[in-house]
Design brief:
Two copies of one chain form a homodimer.
Chain A: E1 7-8, E2 14-17, H1 25-31, E3 34-35, E4 39-41, E5 56-58, E6 63-64, E7 71-72, E8 78-86, E9 89-90, E10 98-106, E11 111-119, E12 125-134, E13 141-150, E14 154-163, E15 174-181, E16 187-193, E17 199-210, E18 215-221, E19 224-233, E20 238-249, H2 256-270, H3 272-290, E21 292-295, H4 298-314, H5 340-352, H6 354-366, H7 368-377, E22 400-403, E23 410-412, H8 415-418, H9 422-437, H10 440-461, E24 463-465, E25 470-472, H11 490-513, H12 515-525, H13 531-541, H14 568-572, H15 599-606, H16 612-622, H17 633-644, H18 647-659, H19 681-695, E26 698-701, E27 704-707, E28 717-724, E29 727-734, E30 737-742, E31 750-754, E32 757-761, E33 766-768
Parallel strand pairs in A: 27-31
Antiparallel strand pairs in A: 1-2, 2-10, 3-4, 4-5, 6-7, 8-9, 8-14, 10-11, 11-12, 12-13, 13-20, 14-19, 15-16, 16-17, 17-20, 18-19, 21-28, 22-23, 24-25, 26-27, 28-29, 29-30, 30-33, 31-32
The complex binds calcium ion (2 copies).
Domain Glycoside hydrolase family 65 C-terminal (chains A, B): 701-756
Protein name (chains A, B): Glycoside hydrolase family 65 protein
Organism (chains A, B): Robiginitalea marina
Chain lengths: 769, 769
């Protein structure tokens, strides 16, 4: 079927670009990318360079480029560089010379394929096709099969190798770049990063089939190394080569260059088909656990899979590392984790692939020392997680980020020091993983330490209001970044209480069941045993802005209702420059009720137990006041619209969230006009949340699993699987009902509640209504 | 002697403008003004109008002009309007036509005199002189004697009456303006203010002497009414008239027009000499109490008197009304009291004219309800005094005041809601008055109620930090307005503790001595008796930023030392527009240590008991970081420089403070380029503080009076009187020592401590070293 934005799909498992559109280079490069959580390779053409945003972003390579004060992941040299010339004319892609074109992303296996028929200015004609994937079996490897076929007689020059001429957002990262050619024919660039001194190796090898070249030579040009093959070809002749690129770095292996050489040699020996077979298995396992099958809405089907695909390739599965806010699609947002990791990216993995979810929560444990350092630096104690968290968990977000486009002055935003909900959000994520997996040993070994240190941070952060007999949390920034410097932000206060309660629960269970391990943890962390009483006291007396008794609306923060009540569209007219930041310190939204995203909606999306009237009242109050300046906003609106009974709006927000990237629907420009491409991984994660938690109404409580479906009216069926505490549940929804089937291999019974029926469902059993 | 800025003095009792300088119209109009605390009449020429900032500002006439949202005092029509024409040519002041010129302000009696010899384009020649004062006996009256003399034959037309064509900062205030001519020859304008509906009457009468006019007629022109006299004059002939203008309004008298008519008629009957005699007595009494006699520094002498003069005429003595930040010299700052009233204006009166000081503190009692309303409106209780306080004490300061000159956007400053030190400052003033006067009955009747309500406000405002076992005061703005939104501002916290301690002391003494009155007060205010324990607890555990153990420096607020450490001159280079506001939200000083004024210096100037090392350390730290963007800044620097032993700098800051107005030294432009004229009454009050508290080292403690002199090296003597608890002390300092004489009429002994001597000094006794 045809999709928007010049796209179509055939089976719901692929996205096809209908024709070449040079204006969409940024968007297509992100959407058609391949990756494996270790590296991301943009969906660009083989002969492109920095102007077309060619990038292969590698995780765990944080470095500050020359002249920059921002750490970012490196975009390494492009080992898949390949260019053709026919009779001296480069086979450049321009609409006038393209006779046939197909560009496809295969979602099931993460394969990017492209075929072109090209005609030159003097009648030259050639066809080529490439097919590439980032190995899911060995994440260091990019594998490509490339074929070209002369459609007229001519001299064809094939130039292929490693191009160092790639885009880098922050500037030059490599202080050293040594081109190497090895006796066995492999090419390599041996690099070293400027600030952090990481050694990175990019090794390339090819295996040529078919016609023998007339001449072959090697060329080093600047920071690049190529091999050039010259063929005198007759119409109908073709050449095929397989290429393997290996990328390793010293944060991961002892000797990057040697490892990469060995892996590339070995891979070339195995050959494309063997590499493909190894690669395909993890993908099949991924879809077996995570696929969302939708009948009756082919657009929704492909959108769901596209977002699952992007979620998966953005997430490191080989090590405990963060999910970047733009994944590995570009260097924007520093390849670092934000609060979105726990609130948007984690849920899908927590209920489908717990081994990956475990990596994400373990990453937060691994970065606890960074969070401790941040807390101490700001005058607190415990763990204050970084707003922008890389390898160590030290704060990467700079004090000055935006520039005031009207004056050119830097703006001091306080995302790094006032957006304290990040710490409770980390606890939320740990609790979610623990609830889903039942992994109490993880909690004992790692989770409890995070929970306790976050609780301690809150002890050091809250203030007590004597005359009101309550704790307050002052001067914060909620998820709604247009209102800095507010008190008693509803989201922050509720989530803080949540994390204090969980800390107390874990403390109590450890005291009961594992007193020795509790004592050891307290000794290790220096937390006094009586701290648990502080946590409990704060949880007890922390001010939680309640639904207004008359309207049911929860005030986003103290004084919010007193701000100017204007709507986003009317407010937008006050912009002097369209690139202005709307928030602190003097943006147009600051003194108004207009929100970047609605914190109360976010809260209602995350914590269960609010009555439906409250959900409805808050949805109806906040929705028209929300500008959706964040890509995180539509998905929680979709979810809460579901719960609030606004089904059409829920579907509209689902579409909005699911198409932010694919339909290039995110037109938001950052202040200062920074690069705006890249995959919005939180929105991608949000699509699973909307479908499973919203449309299927899935909820996990201490009692078990519950569903309150609100299926879009035109969907015939929705099928998906969940993993809960060791049990696989297969769920089928239709307009007539819902069936939940316990997989035969399940270790035991699990309690399921459906509208009008509930039961303990054992292995192989089904509950349906 | 010659002074700067085209001025000179002859005896130290007058300021003389040496020649007419049209460029100084704004400055001279303020400096040469006359007044009596009820009205201020700028030192402008009789025939001038709005372009020359003619103004007669009348207290207690707050009104919002058409289209304005700011209350300000009215500038009433100019009853002293007088213009001459000779042979049809207006005798306009332009340097080409002036043959002789003298403009003098007599400080001793508040008289403005001017004489001009004028020559026309056709050889006309005339001399005139005027002499005017604002009666100190009946403050409704302006009295003038005007004489002109033909120096060549010609037809002279004298036009005199009431001109409504005057400057008004905020716009038109009068919705009604009826010109009236009465049978007894009086002219009047009967006015009504637009917003507040105040009736104002301006009545004028003259008594003509000498030559009889050829023709007399009356003319109403717009909002003016004049009488025109035509004389055919020969060289040498002269005409003299006396004019009395009466100004009353309905906030003060029942029937303004009738009162003013009666008062003007009566005054004209009495005649100029009788009016002068009555006027001179309050002035003699003022100087008897307040004069600062300096031998050896004639410039300092006239500067001291000029500032005392301006302090006196700015201060309402007829009613409990505020001292405006620009007195009655113009409409800037809304004619309203700021915290300067207690900290800069009050001290001189408290130790020289306690009946006037009493009016100022009684004004704060009268406006307690306004302070209560403000507290409630912002979610607190008790008394949160207005940052900008007019008649009722309700907040006059708008939420949006400055405009960002770079973007044209309004700036939300938080002077009104975060500068909470105003309430402790009011307590400081009450305590100062009480200490100086010993007026315990005032404390019982009015002061205690203010102290208790301010203490209650603090209870509602502070937060307790459980883990640090201390109270904190968060999100404030100290006197240094470049740093909004700070925590634990040293000045605010110390002054808050001061006011809580005083509230407890008064509570305890009332409980002991006047339990019935205490009970009545608690019942009236609804303050529970246990509140006293809260006050004590907060005073006890309130965090007071202490001098750093190593450096002795007190941190101005939490995190101040971590800000960029740059000097004001270097910082100034970052301005894009010279009119930019330096402070919140994104001004150049916000993220630096550069201060508008130094809060710690202010604190050390006001509260005694800090060791000299601390004074020195803080002076040396903060002085180079202070931009002195406030006219309040130099005087506290002078005072603390004295105490810190930096005598030359103390004298330099004394000169700076004393000449802000007279030498037109205040070049500061407000953001948005508002009018910048007017008398800086706080700086005027500060001059007394520098000389008496700084150079003479006067201090009043519970034990008595002490002096630690630090006389400028070139001063031969400094003489002044003080009034302390009913005793008049006459103080003489010289480089050799100090003598303090108790006046014979003193009711008892008072304890005096001098360097190296102390004694109880009885009536007629002297202690000297
Ligand atoms: Ca709507
Ligand atoms: Ca200095």
């Amino acid at each position: 079927m045809d999709l928007k934005n010049n796209l179509r799909t055939e089976t719901g498992w692929e996205v096809i670009e209908k024709s070449f559109d040079p204006a969409q280079v940024v968007t297509t490069g992100s959407n058609f990318m391949i990756g494996n959580g270790y590296l991301g390779y943009r969906g660009t053409f083989e002969d492109w360079g920095p102007d077309e945003y060619v990038a292969c972003i590698v995780t765990d390579t944080w470095d500050q480029a020359e002249g920059s004060s921002m750490s970012e992941l490196c975009n390494v040299p492009n080992g898949l560089y390949t260019a053709l010339r026919v009779d001296g004319e480069p086979c450049s892609l321009n609409p006038a010379s393209i006779r046939d074109y197909r560009h496809q992303l295969d979602l099931r296996y993460g394969v990017n394929t492209r075929s072109v028929v090209w005609e030159g200015q003097n009648g030259q004609k050639i066809a080529w096709e490439s097919r590439k994937f980032a190995s899911s079996h060995n994440p260091h490897l990019l594998v490509q099969r490339y074929r070209f076929k002369a459609l007229a007689n001519g001299v064809v020059e094939l130039k292929t190798g490693i191009s160092g001429d790639v885009w880098s957002l922050g500037g030059e990262h490599f202080s050293q770049c040594i081109p190497l050619e090895f006796a066995n024919g492999l090419l390599a660039l041996s690099l070293e990063t400027r600030e952090t001194g990481i050694s990175i190796a990019v090794v390339e090898g090819i295996r040529l089939e078919g016609k023998t070249p007339e001449k072959v030579w090697t060329s080093t040009e600047g920071k690049s190394i190529f091999r050039i093959f010259r063929f005198r070809m007759e119409a109908g002749e073709d050449v095929v080569f397989e290429k393997v690129v290996g990328i390793t770095h010293s944060n991961e292996v002892e000797e990057p260059l040697r490892s990469a050489r060995e892996e590339v040699s070995d891979a070339l020996d195995q050959g494309y088909e063997a590499l493909w077979t190894a690669h395909s298995k993890p993908w099949e396992a991924f879809w077996d656990g995570a696929d969302l099958q939708i009948e009756g809405d082919p657009e929704a089907q492909v959108l769901a899979r596209f977002n699952l695909y992007q979620s998966y390739i953005a997430t490191p599965t080989h090590a405990n590392l963060p999910v970047g806010a733009r994944g590995l699609s570009c260097q924007v947002y520093q390849g670092a984790a934000f609060w979105d990791q726990e609130t948007y990216n984690l849920p899908m993995f927590a209920f489908t692939h717990q081994e990956i979810a475990h990596r994400l929560v373990a990453y937060r444990y691994d970065t606890l020392d960074g969070a401790r350092r941040k807390a101490r630096k700001l005058g607190y104690y415990g763990a204050f997680y970084a707003w922008t968290s890389g390898k160590t968990g030290d704060e990467l977000f700079p004090d000055f980020f935006f520039t005031d486009v009207l004056t050119g002055r830097p703006i001091r935003n306080h995302f790094n020091c006032w957006q304290i909900h990040i710490s409770p959000d980390v606890v939320y994520g740990i609790w979610l993983y623990y609830q889903a997996s039942g992994n109490w040993e993880f909690m004992l070994e790692q989770g409890a330490e995070v929970l306790f240190e976050v609780a301690q941070f809150l002890v050091s952060r809250v203030h007590f209001k004597m005359d009101k007999n309550r704790y307050e949390i002052l001067r914060v920034l909620g998820p709604d970044e247009y209102h800095e410097n507010v008190d008693n932000n509803a989201y922050t206060n509720y989530l803080s209480q949540f994390s204090l309660v969980k800390a107390c629960q874990v403390f109590d269970r450890m005291k009961e069941e594992h007193p020795g391990r509790l004592a050891a943890l307290l000794e290790k962390t220096g937390i006094p045993a009586r701290a648990r009483e502080d946590w409990n006291d704060i949880a007890d007396r922390l001010y939680l802005p309640a639904p207004d008794p008359e309207t049911g609306v929860i005030e986003q923060f103290d004084g919010y209702f007193g701000l100017e009540d204007i709507r986003p569209d009317a407010l937008r007219k006050r912009l002097i420059d369209p690139g202005e930041y709307w928030g602190w310190p003097n943006g147009i939204a600051v003194h108004t009720q207009v929100l970047k995203q609605a914190d109360v909606i976010q809260l209602l999306a995350m914590l269960d137990g609010f009555p439906k009237e409250v959900l409805t009242a808050n949805y109806e109050y906040y929705e028209p006041r929300t500008e959706h300046g964040s890509s995180l906003s539509p998905s929680v609106h979709a979810l809460v619209a579901c719960k609030a009974g606004h089904h059409e709006e829920a579907y509209r927000y689902f579409l909005e969230s699911a198409t932010i990237d694919l339909y290039n629907a995110s037109k938001k420009v950052m202040s200062g006009g920074s690069f705006l491409g890249g995959i919005h991984t939180a929105a991608a994660g949000g699509v699973w949340i909307i479908i499973v938690r919203g449309f299927a109404g899935f909820e996990l409580t201490d009692a078990g699993v519950a569903f309150s479906p609100a299926l879009p009216a035109h969907w015939k069926t929705l099928r998906f699987a969940l993993k809960v505490r060791g049990c696989r549940l297969e769920v089928v929804l239709s307009p007539n009902g819902i069936r939940v089937h316990g997989a035969p291999e399940n270790p035991g019974k699990i309690h399921i509640r459906l509208p009008g029926a509930q039961a303990w469902v054992g292995p192989g059993e089904t509950l349906g209504v």
